[in-house]
Amino acid sequence: MGLGTWITFNVGDDDELRDECAAVMDAFFRAGGGMIDSSPMYGSSQPVIGYGLRKLGQPKSLFSADKVWISSGSRGPSQIEESRSLWGVPRFDLLQVHNLLSWEEHLQTLSAMKAAGQLRYVGITTSEGRRHDLLETIMASRPLDFVQLTYNIVDREVEDRILPLAADRGIGVIVNRPFQQGVLLRRLAGQPLPRLGRGHRRLQLGAGRPEIHHLPSRRHGGHTGDQPGRACAGEHGRDERDRCPTPR
Question: Does residue 217 surpass a pLDDT of 50?
């Protein structure tokens, strides 16, 4: 389970709100969470993350995921270094090309960083069903560790080709907008949870190949709640199309 920081951590220099964000991070880590995802696009979210990590004593369970988001490929390394400094981490676990912006140049940079031991994993991102054809092309032709995309019980287009391709190539999947920015939760508020039969299957996606898990029914002592995959992150509190600044 991951913690996204779009909008919610963009609180500027407000001390009270920074402390609230740090408290959210503390609860997240205490509950067993690890991955925090951010981007230079997310306003002050990166320094707020850095503040929280310092306040919490740099939790060892952190899996740091950030992005490069700049139209100039040559300026990618300096943006990455600024992001790393704001987080206060020695290196990122995962860096992603945000929304496929200047993806060819940035993937070269990230692959070189990984080869030099400056980065653990390389990925690309999109959201809300955009540019899936290009996403699929890159996944099929480039060595990627992760892909981030929108997937939820309503938005299921990726089940047709993207998720099978990720399984075939051993690419980890990070999910954004798992509840459609809270729309699904509001629609289902007050409704009883469905009972899951013995034959219900769940696709669990991680850094390796996906695994199919059969969830037992309640009468067999099984848990009927939703169980997140190893590499799933709820990201993007609001609509990026309407709120995104222009990349530098």
Answer: no
